[in-house]
Specification:
By secondary structure, this protein is an all-alpha fold. The chain contains 19 helices and no strands.
Length: 413
């Protein structure tokens, strides 16, 4: 019956959701940091405080949101509501530039951003099933990266023709389009048990009834993966904003365009990487591919210290397409492997996202203070060291998670 219900679902709807959500989120992202530092004269420390506070507020809800999505049958509605709040936050950023307004708007955007990742992952699993999940997660990531390329180009055009501030008005436009794409998925096409990685047999239902925290902490590979995710994002999250600021100070009139070039360079590489990962993860295994992604990150951070030439920095940023491209495509798949049959898939995704958020929030403040005190190169080298530790921990602590699955009936992909 689940297969029959999924037959009325068009894969293009998932494609559109991933593409348009990237456009909606990407019109705020790193542009806010560059805008506040270069056009509004904010210090790195003040920017770090906003990043930390908004990140901590979001972290308090990240894992509970995953648990709610596991139990909710209104996954489409959750995405639409989050888009509405994100659009409102972007309008506030456009209209105001004082500390408290930006802090409130940034916090709103960060909190509702918690919803997108587990909700889209739940829709994907509930619509596609496990057998073709590797290929579908790669395709999701590819459309997400394509959306990031488009919004980066649009933002560059808006920043050039109008102002950096005008970029934030793109958010409400893409929020409406993303909401329409979400609602184009028929509610009856979603298998909500499958969407939370629950199996129909009695044993699996008993496992699903266990407290979520016990399931998460009892899975040692999931705990190890959470630690690796924390270290990876601690090292990775500040790199793009810092590079964008280096380029913005060197080319003040081209600040938004320079940030867009960095984003497009990496996202253009992520797109084919995501497709490749989706097609090879079941054959090669998850761990060897993931190790490549972890190993690239410290190399990229060190390269940023060798020269601040514009061409060099943009070329080094291409490596983000490999590192983060692999991470984004494989994370939903690895988590699905680890919690198979528990019924706590979205809770686990939320927990991993919490770890990544903690890493990104803390590192934003740490990197900002280091830049103010010691300069950009010191921050890059510190982040490189953390990235190397992340790669070592992953290599030693994470097992291969791929398992053979029984075949599911073919359906839309």
């Amino acid at each position: 019956m689940a297969s029959a219900s999924r037959a009325c679902f068009s894969p293009r709807s998932l494609d559109a959701i991933n593409f348009l959500l990237a456009d909606a989120r990407g019109a705020v992202g790193p542009y806010l940091n560059v805008y506040l530092v270069t056009e509004r004269g904010w210090s790195q420390s003040a920017l770090g405080v906003v990043t930390l506070v908004s990140g901590v507020a979001a972290l308090a809800l990240q894992t509970p949101i995953g648990a709610v999505i596991d139990r909710s049958r209104a996954k489409r509605g959750a995405i639409v509501l989050a888009l509405a709040v994100m659009a409102l936050g972007a309008v506030v950023v456009f209209a105001r530039s004082d500390f408290w307004s930006i802090l409130a708007a940034s916090t709103m955007i960060a909190v509702v951003g918690d919803i997108f990742y587990p909700a889209v992952a739940a829709l994907t699993l509930g619509l596609i099933g496990r057998r073709r999940l590797a290929q579908r997660t790669g395709r999701n990531a590819a459309f997400d990266h394509a959306g990031n390329v488009v919004i980066a180009l649009l933002a560059a055009a808006m920043g050039w023709w109008f102002s950096q501030r005008a970029v934030f008005l793109l958010v409400p436009i893409f929020a409406v389009l993303a909401a329409a794409a979400t609602l184009s998925i028929p509610a009856q096409a979603i298998d909500h048990d499958l969407a939370r990685a629950a199996d129909p047999d009695g044993k699996a239902r008993r496992r699903a009834a266990r407290p979520g925290w016990r399931v998460l902490l009892g899975c040692k590979p999931l705990v190890a993966f959470g630690i690796c995710a924390f270290l990876f994002h601690f090292a990775n999250a500040p790199l793009l904003p810092l590079v964008g600021q280096v380029l913005a100070f060197a080319h003040p009139a081209w600040a938004t365009a320079m940030m867009s070039i960095c984003i497009v360079a990496a996202q253009a590489v992520m797109l084919p990487i995501s497709i490749l990962v989706g097609h090879t993860a079941d054959r090669w295994g998850r761990k060897p591919i993931f190790l490549i992604g972890f190993a690239v990150l410290p190399v990229r951070a060190v390269l940023f210290t060798l020269s601040h030439d514009t061409g060099w920095l943009i070329a080094a940023q291409l490596l983000d397409g490999i590192g983060f491209g692999i991470y984004a495509a494989l994370t939903p798949l690895v988590v699905a492997d680890l919690v198979r049959g528990t019924g706590h898939y979205n809770l686990a995704l939320g927990a991993v996202a919490t770890m990544t958020g903690i890493g990104a929030s803390i590192s934003g403040l740490v990197a900002g203070v280091m830049v103010d005190a010691f300069g950009f190169d010191a921050a890059f080298l510190t982040l490189s060291l953390v990235a190397a530790i992340a790669a070592l921990v992953f290599a030693m602590a994470m097992p291969e998670t791929r398992l053979e699955l029984p075949r599911e009936p073919a359906g839309p992909g």
